């Protein structure tokens, strides 16, 4: 109680922060990258603590992270975001085993795998995330997308398409208004 924050380890700081956040027994805890920069052992302890508290306090957790391993461990439902928009949403098993959006698929391909040949190159997503003030027109992901429909995705913002009762995607590839050959339906107005 008497220590300054700089006297605590990273793991202790995280625990203190969680204690502060839970002091009022919230119904929803928003945890934004709560395990970033922690070693994997401390990260595992923090995750266990959060999941235990979730059950004990009957609260929900909105967990924000770039770590897909953490997502697989803690999430029930996943919202994949790109440039501030939810591009795919669904149960965690669907996101990992049946990903739909090209960005989700690329993210999963870029997870390093143990045991690969040293010469095997890591699969990265080409390009960089654009600055929010220079958001590409059409689909924001089109400059980096390996499945983009030339001449269409860079002009039309994809609508949200429902894939199941509990899953949706924002991509022209799943839009019934774009035909099977990947050509836009001529009846479709430019969004
Ligand atoms: S709408 Fe087009 S550019 Fe955007 S993710 Fe889908 S295929 Fe790729």
TrEMBL record:
GO biological process entries: peptide transport
Presence of the UniProt keyword Membrane in the record: yes
ABC transporter domain location: 5-36
Highest taxon of source: Bacteria
Oligopeptide/dipeptide ABC transporter C-terminal domain mapped to chain residues: 87-150
Keywords: ATP-binding, Cell inner membrane, Cell membrane, Membrane, Nucleotide-binding, Translocase, Transport
InterPro entries: ABC_Ni/Peptide_Import, ABC_transporter-like_ATP-bd, Oligopep_ABC_C, P-loop_NTPase
A Pfam short name: ABC_tran
Main location: membrane
GO cellular component: membrane
GO molecular function, one term: ATP binding
Compartments where found: Membrane
Keyword Translocase recorded: yes
Annotated family: Belongs to the ABC transporter superfamily.
Name of the featured protein: Oligopeptide/dipeptide ABC transporter ATP-binding protein
Organism expressing this protein natively: Microlunatus parietis
């Amino acid at each position: 109680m008497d220590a300054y924050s700089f006297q605590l380890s990273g793991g202790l700081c995280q625990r203190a922060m969680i204690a502060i956040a839970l002091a009022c027994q919230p119904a929803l805890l928003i945890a934004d990258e709560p395990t970033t920069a922690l070693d994997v052992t401390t990260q595992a302890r923090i995750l266990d603590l959060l999941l235990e508290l979730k059950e004990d306090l009957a609260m929900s957790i909105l967990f924000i992270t770039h770590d897909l391993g953490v997502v697989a461990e803690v999430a029930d439902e996943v919202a994949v975001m790109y440039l501030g928009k939810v591009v795919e949403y669904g149960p965690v098993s669907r996101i990992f085993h049946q990903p739909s959006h090209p960005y989700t698929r690329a993210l999963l391909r870029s997870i390093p795998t143990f045991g690969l040949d040293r010469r095997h190159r890591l699969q990265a997503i080409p390009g960089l995330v654009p600055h929010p003030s220079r958001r590409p027109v059409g689909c924001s992901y089109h400059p980096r997308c390996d499945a983009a429909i030339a001449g269409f995705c860079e002009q039309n913002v994809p609508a949200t398409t429902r894939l199941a009762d509990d899953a949706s995607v924002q991509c022209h590839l799943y839009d019934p208004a774009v035909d099977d050959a990947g050509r836009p339906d001529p009846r479709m107005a430019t969004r």
